[in-house]
Each structure stands twice: as structure tokens, then as C-alpha cells.
Amino acid sequence: MNSLAIWYQGDQTNKVIDVHINFWKLPVMEKGGRFLDVGLNLPESMSVDKIYIFIPFTVGLNDINDLGGVIGASSPKLLTAIFNEDYRITSYPNSDYYGVKDQDDNEVFNVYALNHTNFSIANRHDGTVIEISLPQKEVRKEKTYLRFRITGSNLAHFSKIEKDVSSILSNAFNKNEILDFRVNSARHLPNRLLEEMAQGKSFKITKIHFFYICSYCEDYTLSHQPFHSVRKLEDKIWDDYMAATHNLQNLNPKETFIAYHWKDKSNDEREIEDFNVFLKTNFRDKNWETIGKYMLYLLLFAICSGVIANYIFSQFPKSSAIAVVVGSDISKDQGEIQDGKKLQVEKERVVVRSNPSSSVTK
Which of 28, 214, 257, 258 supports an S-S bond with 233, CB 3.0-4.6 Å? Predict the structure, then answer.
């Protein structure tokens, strides 16, 4: 079971929602380099009281962090980069809401900064159900946008990593990763969870965006369908956003990130019932554990090679070795004698040629 599920509690059915998902993979030499950002745009938020999200693994409250406050305090460049639109942010006095407007001063949506009082979790159905409570209707704004981050090593549940067997030498570092990410896939959800969802209300998903963000050194191999777009993340602009939950000291400051984008959109003829991304990449794993194992393998190989070489040479008798040396010396002496004879003949020829009269006299 590897699918997320989203439903809600409210006084009306089929409320519209747009879903934004960013799956991050930072190439840091420590655990926890992956995190999942979930954004929920609720144009009809006055009819939604609670949102439920099923995660197919164990999640603790400390693994859930709000990003609404990060967006509210973001720079105009970061705001534009997040939503890929030329937006600007405004704040409301004594409120946890931040208004987002376009260049014509039209209200697009209102970002709400969540805190831990808005979250509650329950571990069931072999996973975790996250309950998000919206603010009271007296202070709630229409067009509410929520965004939060899920961290923890259990995010590896979405992936399967295998060694690259295409090369023996590169096998120590090169690995293939298969990411299988799904949303509302009934076939991949527990039956008891489906029964619980039926007691609530289903969203009408109009748009869903999925971004896989990784190092430029990671190679895209294949996916269930071609990605909609790919782009390089802007340098430095995303640092504060990434650092909201992660220490970036171990990250190369010159690291370049690539974002692969898949999306789906409903229309009058088709609704989005579920969504999935199947992706395969190849990357170089450079953690200290892998490096240590590789160096140990090299050391053992060198020791074994030396032992085998010594054993092979020990099988030759010493007399044979002496015979070979003596034989080579005899051959050398014979060669020197022959060379001496040749030199003497050459000298006699030179003498005969330099004194032709001597031969006539004789």
C-alpha cells in the first residue's frame, strides 16, 4: 500500500480542491534528505471544516511542519518561484492569514499559517491519518491555501533502491531508484480505510501538480508518461524554503537542483479520481557508509591478491630457480665468447684491407 488519500468533513459534498505535491531529494551525506511538501488550495473553504490525509507509513507530529508562515514571510522572488506566477504577498493585522494577489491587485487566495494545534494524528490502517482543522468560520477566509511538509526516514516507503549492476566498478556507488507515488488509488488503499473515507466526503480534484526535485547529477531514466516540463531551480532563492526544516550545512552551496513536473486537470468529460507517478532515476550514492565499505573491499582485495601471489611463487622449487639463473649465466658467457670471436675476425679483415701489398708479397 503506497497511496495517499484525501477527504474531508463539511456540510456539503464535492467541494473543489487543487493539490500541489513536491517530493524533495537532497543529496546530503546524512539521513533525512527527503521531504514531502503538500499544498491544498480550497476555493470553497467555508464549506470545509476538517481535512483528512492518509499517509501509508507512520508519521509523528514532529514530522509535520507548517510552510504557510514560510510563504507569508517569503520574498517576492520566492513567492513567484513557488507558484510560477507573478504574485505578491500581503499580511492581515492580528491574523494567521496572508493574502496573495496578482499584479492587478485581485485576490488569488489566502495562505493560512498552521500550527500544531491544527494537526492531530492517528496511527491506523498500517499508516497514519492526519487530521487538519481549519480555523473557526468567524475568522476563516474564503479561498484558503494550506501548505505543510512531512519529513522522516519513512518517506523511503515510496521508493525502492537497487544497485546498478551495469558496471562492476561503478556498482559500489551507482544506484537505481524507482519512485511509485499515488493519490486516492483505491486499489492501493486498505479496505477499512475506504470504509472510513465513505463516511466522510470526497473532494472534487480539479488540478493536481507533482514535482520531483533532485540534484542535477541524478539522471532521469524513465517514467509512466513523459513529464510535462523540467526546469532548473533558481539559485539561492529556495534556500530559506528548504532550510525551514533541514540543516543545509552539509549541502554543497553550488548544488544545482532540477524539478520534473507532472500534472493532471479535470474537465467536463473527466474527473480526477486518482493520480500516480512512476519514475526511475539513477544516482551516485556517496555516503560515508558506502565509501567505508568500498575501501574495505579494496583492502581485502589487495590482501587476497598478495596471499595468492605468494602461494603461487612458493610452488616453484628453489633448484629450478637456481638452474634458471645458472643457465642464463652460461648463455651469457657463451654469447660473450661468440661476440669476441666475431670482433677478432672483423679486426683481421680491417688489417687485410689496410695493407693490400702484404697479400701480393705472399
Answer: 257
